[in-house]
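Our consortium's second objective concerns turning raw sequence data into structural hypotheses that experimental partners can test. To show how far this objective has progressed, the report includes one record in full. It was chosen at random from the queue rather than selected for favorable results. The single chain below, 309 residues long, was entered without modification.
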Amino acid sequence: MNNIAHGVWAASLTPLNERLNINTSEYIQHIRNLFDQGCNGVALFGTTGEANSFSIEEKLSVLAEVTKAGFALDQLMVGTGCCAVSDTILFTQKAIDLGFTNFLVLPPFYYKGVSAQGIFNSYAQLIAALPQTGVNIIVYDIPQMSGVEISLELLQRLRDTFPNIIKGVKNSTGDWTAIKAACETMPGFAVFAGTEQYLLPTLQAGGAGCISATANVTSKKLGEIYASYKTQDAEHLQSVATETRLMLQQYPPAPALKQIIAQTLRRKSWTNIRPPLVNLSAEDAQSMLRTIEASGFALNQYPSLETAG
């Protein structure tokens, strides 16, 4: 058991109120909307969700409410990686107590140039503190943000040492050769691309799918790729999705995607963002929205909070 759902996962945004606190009711509605728009799973409190701009207490408070909303918790994944391993342990244990089973875990990310042994030790310390069954850890490989390199050899060592808990990787390096190598070297390991640009090739190589920031606004179309990835139609769908992804990733992800949802819902509060991140300039926001409109790509259409059933 303990299987991770394959397919399209959205790395969820985190809506905020005017005081820049998490808007819990809108957060829950956004998760619901993502499932309605074709997501197979939703990752909470990752990079796009501004995770490290919130305290553990803030995140746990919201997660407690999420558990009451009727979601299948095995279709959710919680980002629990912190700078201090002790904080990662605390956060993960508390989330397990709430009923969550899937965790996207960054390595400790303050010190740079650390050894593979040091990274291994950090995951080993975390795992030693957790239940040895019923917990799935997805290693979060995003060196452009963490400054920490996770080699294929280290990933294999983690999987081989902790096969009941280390279940996959989210590879956000943007390096297709690394994603492909992980799929081919570790069959059955849940390899997720960090971008839908590689959704189809990852699936074809035996990987699990993607965990994508832009799936917040593109998951409906991405779901069509997953549904048809063994057919000839998938190549065209992938090419359109890739073009849209490359266009969107010209902008900082959280501010840009929040701007798109604010425009879709006509809710300015969706542009609220915590420092140190800042909103797009008015010029960049308008340029992005014009480009999207001209592309003709069908973005997700979400009901507003007030009208959602």
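The partners drew two points from this record. Strands lie at 7-11, 41-44, 76-79, 102-105, 136-141, 166-171, 190-193, 209-212. Residues 7-295 form a domain with the TIM Barrel fold (CATH 3.20.20.70). Both points have been shared with the crystallography group to help prioritize constructs.
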